[in-house]
Amino acid sequence: MDQGQALASFGALSQETRLQIVRMLVVAGPAGMAAGTIAEKLEVSPSNISFHLKELDRAGLISQQREARSIIYSANYHALGELVRFLMEDCCAGHPEICAPAAAVAACCAPSAKG
Amino acid sequence: MDQGQALASFGALSQETRLQIVRMLVVAGPAGMAAGTIAEKLEVSPSNISFHLKELDRAGLISQQREARSIIYSANYHALGELVRFLMEDCCAGHPEICAPAAAVAACCAPSAKG
DNA sequence: TCCATAATTCAACAATCCTTGAAATATTGA
DNA sequence: TCAATATTTCAAGGATTGTTGAATTATGGA
């Protein structure tokens, strides 16, 4: 991920509705969620949620696929992982002080950890 | 770090000049850099750099201290670390797929790693 | 084909953000 | 105090972003 990509990602995540969409889709997993369901849960109008979904898609943080009448959105795990990596390595130059809390989280969730 | 704090941080990092300032200050370390020096290196006008430094300060990502005629800015490592943690744990729900690349970076720079 | 459902697109407007240059503030030294 | 340096503040304008509701597109079933 280059700096331009990171800028777009940060911009996409800097809006409350969009950050909530991403958090929701991450929890939803690969099954994803229909646009209408997202709008309902977040209590946002269909046209507004559509606008924000398009922004997230443009930034590459989510992807979509039609399923019957619905359009299912899901989080792009790879892009989110790359963003974390950019923030730690490229932006924060791998400084231990910055990476320490991240390392703690990584230790809990990494497949090679004790779990 | 709560969601509001994260939103402010993402907003602050979503602008090219500001992202460059942060990257520069992280590399500069605790010694920091004077506003004028930052402006010079990034080829941005003094008033413009001042605007962006204020935005980063408001988001808590950098801090300042006067030294003679200069005002020295430095990266807030703790805030950056918390942002990485938020992105991995709160936003990305600790998903291994997302954390994997981060774990790799963490392994290289963490003080408790093999180094 | 016709209707209902699901979502997007569009235009208009409001709100926010960025840039610019001039003026103001703070510090230092003569 | 005066001048020079370093930076910030301010106001104006332009650019971008977010919101709204109406119109449009796409799908599936009677």
TrEMBL record, chains A, B:
Family annotation (SMART domains): HTH_ARSR
The keyword Transmembrane belongs to this UniProt entry's keyword annotation: no
InterPro entries: ArsR-like_HTH (IPR011991), HTH_ArsR_DNA-bd_dom (IPR001845), Metal_resp_trans_reg (IPR051011), WH-like_DNA-bd_sf (IPR036388), WH_DNA-bd_sf (IPR036390)
One Pfam family, short name: HTH_20
Top-level lineage group: Bacteria
Record-annotated HTH arsR-type domain positions: 1-95
Record carries keyword DNA-binding: yes
Molecular function per GO: DNA binding; DNA-binding transcription factor activity
Assigned keywords, A-Z: DNA-binding, Transcription, Transcription regulation
PANTHER family in alphabetical order: ARSENICAL RESISTANCE OPERON REPRESSOR ARSR-RELATED
Protein name according to UniProt: DNA-binding transcriptional regulator, ArsR family
Organism: Xaviernesmea oryzae
